[in-house]
Amino acid sequence: MLDNLVQKVREQVRERYMQSNQSGLWHELDKNLQAVLQETFAKMELVNREEFDRQTVLLSEARQKLTALQAQMKALEQQLK
Questions:
Q1: Greatest distance between any 2 Cα atoms in the chain
Q2: pLDDT of 2 over the 80 cut
Q3: Is the separation of the CB atoms in 30 and 14 below 8 Å?
Q4: Using only C-alpha atoms, what is the Rg of the chain?
Q5: Helix 2-19 to helix 23-43 angle, to the nearest 10 degrees?
Q6: Of 9, 16, 15, 17, whose CA–CA distance to 35 is shortest?
Q7: Closest by alpha carbon to 11, among 62, 41, 77, 19?
Q8: Backbone torsion region of residue 46, taken as left when φ is above 0, otherwise alpha when ψ lies between -120 and 50, otherwise beta
Q9: Is the pTM of this model over 0.85?
């Protein structure tokens, strides 16, 4: 996912340099651009879609269990009264 984003950013920057007839500068910039972008995204602690979806499922299951436990607790409290 991040690799695709890095690639898209590189392509857009390349396009702009080529349009401005700065292709020589592009080759120098391209050497470092990918590494800098990947390092920046790594610092952002982003998660991919698969991890997000997996955590969403786990959260949903936890909510269901919590709701069931709350119902059980109310039933037990009623029995004690």
A1: 83
A2: no
A3: yes
A4: 25
A5: 150
A6: 9
A7: 19
A8: beta
A9: no
What tokens does 40 get?
């920046």
Is residue 34 within 8 A of residue 10, CB to CB? The reply is yes
Question: How far is Cα 44 from Cα 27, in angstroms, rounded to an integer?
Answer: 27
Kindly tell me the sign of the dihedral angle through the C-alpha atoms of 52, 58, 61, 62.
Answer: negative
pLDDT tens, position by position, 23-62: 667 677 777 777 787 788 778 878 888 999 999 999 999 9
Name the more confident of 3 and 76. Answer: 76
